[in-house]
Amino acid sequence: MALGAKLDLFAAFADIARGLGNAHRLDLLEHLAQGEKSVEALAAKTGLTFANTSQHLQALRRVGLVIGERRGKQVVYRLSGDDVLDLMAALRAVGERHADAVQTVVSDYFEARDALEAVPFATLEQRMGDGLVTLIDVRPADEFVAAHVPGARNIPLAELRARLDEIPPGAEVIAYCRGPWCVLAFEAVALLREAGRDARRLDGGLPEWRRAGLPVEVA
Amino acid sequence: MALGAKLDLFAAFADIARGLGNAHRLDLLEHLAQGEKSVEALAAKTGLTFANTSQHLQALRRVGLVIGERRGKQVVYRLSGDDVLDLMAALRAVGERHADAVQTVVSDYFEARDALEAVPFATLEQRMGDGLVTLIDVRPADEFVAAHVPGARNIPLAELRARLDEIPPGAEVIAYCRGPWCVLAFEAVALLREAGRDARRLDGGLPEWRRAGLPVEVA
DNA sequence: CTTATATTCAAGAACTCTCTTGAATGAACG
DNA sequence: CGTTCATTCAAGAGAGTTCTTGAATATAAG
């Protein structure tokens, strides 16, 4: 019984781990970390079919990682708690350490990343105060509207090249996006450097900012 | 490419999550959190067959959660890093929150647990200093020998009833075992209370103690 | 060199997961 | 109250996981 109960307990935890055990579901979780979203919105963001998105969301809900709530005609999903962000961060920590050793694609990714040193939140706050820095949020506009770092200007990555003139030439540019797994800010920094700007990435995206207890701005 | 690379990255993280996605593998990880062990030792502790234990360990090694090293005739496995403990703790945090809602067995487990308030590490250290407390390690002797909290006395759960007289009657008893998922200390506390002792559980087992940077004693 | 010991590999049966397709539900709106 | 829209359910093909069994390695010891 003690042994059986223990395995039952482990089985429950294993179910949660299996909930995270699919690339598309991690993608969905990252999008949900930006804020609550309908199934339709998630299907559009991830490129999955409607039914498939729904099934993945139900898998996540079954193990308690997300909560789905009917709101009129739509069902809106959100992360079930901040500990889900912590769990994803812990997974990332193990993954980044292991990446070098095994996965080439991934280690390329992280090598590129190491080359661009990230700016900690505290440093950003300080420089924002001094007015020495332009902070840009390179996520799509709808995610910016839902929540963003105070003082950030929204220039989605897709529009960045065309809107370079909106960024004051002298100041340092700091870019952020959805979080540590998100490529948008990396690409933004690469593009900005190509254009001769002094650009760096913020060390963490909006979910990490919020998780750190820092204020966010809406609309 | 950006999208493909991102999914490759997520797939790598998902592989790690799937590594945790099996009750037996979580069991193996908990045992490895006590210290490195051979395949044979793990098979004995978990009750799995030899070949099955080996296969699960290889699954864990493939995703970088454990490291296996040939040492003479044996292959000795250990956790690949402290971040694996953090990952397990994060998984537990989500699981405990979700437990009430879904798994009855598990919620029973956690209810029983809530009834016995756990003693934080800091409190233990203070009371140990005052000599007001008897600390017992209820894990099997081999795990105690590998590492234990300084000042603890080893009385494996199986022997506890027979060795009650080794515990000074007046003082409070604090028991610990393998960690938050381990039932040994729960059962020890229940048994001690039945015997009229003032017993409580330590809030965390040996892996958590070590992870907190506190000193351990060997042999 | 042979044997014993510890571990891994290989193959197969039973089961689970994933994605697709098309039908079914549930709420809102005319 | 019938239609529309967003979502879920159901069934099935294909792939992956798990456990068992027995054979294959690799090291150590005689």
Count of helical segments of chain A? 11
Named CATH architecture of the largest domain in chain A: 3-Layer(aba) Sandwich
CATH topology of the largest domain in chain A: Oxidized Rhodanese, domain 1
Q: Point out poorly predicted stretches of chain A.
A: none
Structural features, described:
Two copies of one chain form a homodimer. The first copy, chain A, contains eleven helices and eight strands. With 219 residues, chain A is of the alpha/beta class. A five-stranded parallel beta sheet of chain A has the order 4-8-7-5-6, sandwiched between helices. In chain A, helix 3 crosses helix 4 (50-62). The mean pLDDT of chain A is 89. Chains A and B meet through helix 1, helix 2, helix 5 and helix 6 of A and helix 1, helix 2, helix 5 and helix 6 of B. Chain A binds a DNA duplex (30 and 30 nucleotides) through helix 4.
Q: Quick gist of this model?
A:
The structure is a homodimer of 219-residue chains. Chain A is an alpha/beta fold and 219 residues long.
Descriptive key words:
homodimer; 219 residues; alpha/beta; Arc Repressor Mutant, subunit A; Oxidized Rhodanese, domain 1; 2 domains; 3-stranded antiparallel β-sheet; 11 helices; 53% helix; DNA-binding
Task: Tell me the layout of helices and strands.
2 copies of one chain form a homodimer.
Chain A (H helix, E strand, L loop, with lengths): L1 H18 L3 H11 L3 E2 H8 L3 H13 L3 E6 L2 E6 L2 H18 L4 H12 L2 E2 L1 H10 L2 E5 L3 H6 L6 E2 L2 H4 L11 E5 L7 H11 L4 E4 L3 H6 L8
The structure holds a DNA duplex (30 and 30 nucleotides).
